[in-house]
Structure to design on (261 residues):
């Protein structure tokens, strides 16, 4: 299971670039000195012209073209609004042991809150709910058709998800596209609740974090601490009217995890 290992981040625009630098800082603070590639622009001008919102241009598009930015044999993509609060080695060990060339955290079974399940009978395969904040990609084993399938699905998004509309920021987000591709290839996610990989944080809870909070539910207590926190706006952000992702740097709990020793 040798080969190079490292992270891919997206930092398009000064504020998001700062967030990726903050994430890298916390990785190194907790002993992870793996290399990092930060995507600062999209080079796909054709797909760029098909995007209708800033979220599609700077969020969805770079994530469905990650196959063009794989500097390592083993790559983990992390969202810019995540931070590291602990040892990450067990995450790498888990992902690298997978038979899948793409591995994501997600929910096992059917999630009634996930709109894509309703299209399974039309498409002829199960569509798992996956989380787009943490994605492992094995460059050497990657099927060359996986990412082009997502790009084609992006262009045909409204035809595929014809009864759902644009459910997030009036945009075509990456998570349903990754869910489609995972389903097409018969992949299963790593159960988010029972594996110590990432958790949602809405406030300042002192690490070590020993359970996963996601989708308004908390999982069981875990033996190994969760190393990655995905910062959500929480009550503070709601009270201050924060709606943009880059405003998370203004949250007190973002600062807490950024500076946690």
């Amino acid at each position: 299971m040798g080969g190079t290992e490292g992270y891919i981040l997206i930092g398009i625009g000064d504020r998001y670039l700062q967030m990726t630098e903050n994430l890298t800082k916390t990785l190194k603070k907790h002993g992870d000195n793996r290399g990092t590639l930060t995507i600062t622009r999209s080079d796909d001008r054709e797909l760029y012209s098909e995007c209708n919102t800033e979220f599609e241009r700077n969020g969805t598009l770079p994530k469905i073209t990650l196959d063009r930015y794989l500097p390592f044999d083993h790559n983990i993509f992390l969202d810019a609004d995540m931070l590291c609060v602990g040892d990450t080695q067990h995450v790498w060990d888990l992902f690298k042991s997978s038979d899948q060339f793409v591995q994501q955290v997600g929910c096992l079974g059917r999630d009634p809150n996930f709109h894509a399940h309703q299209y399974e009978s039309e498409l002829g395969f199960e569509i798992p709910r996956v989380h787009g904040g943490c994605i492992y990609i094995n460059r050497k084993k990657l099927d060359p058709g996986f990412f082009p399938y997502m790009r084609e699905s992006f262009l045909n998004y409204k035809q595929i998800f014809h009864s759902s509309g644009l459910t997030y920021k009036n945009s075509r987000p990456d998570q349903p596209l990754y869910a489609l591709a995972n389903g097409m290839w018969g992949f299963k996610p790593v159960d988010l609740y029972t594996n110590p990989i990432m958790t949602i944080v809405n406030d300042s809870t002192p690490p070590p974090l020993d359970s996963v909070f996601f989708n308004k539910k908390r999982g069981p207590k875990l033996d190994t601490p969760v190393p990655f926190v995905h910062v959500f706006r929480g009550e503070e952000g709601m009270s201050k009217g924060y709606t943009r992702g880059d405003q998370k740097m203004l949250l007190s709990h973002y600062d807490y995890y950024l500076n946690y020793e």
Remarks:
- The first strand starts at residue 5 and ends at 10.
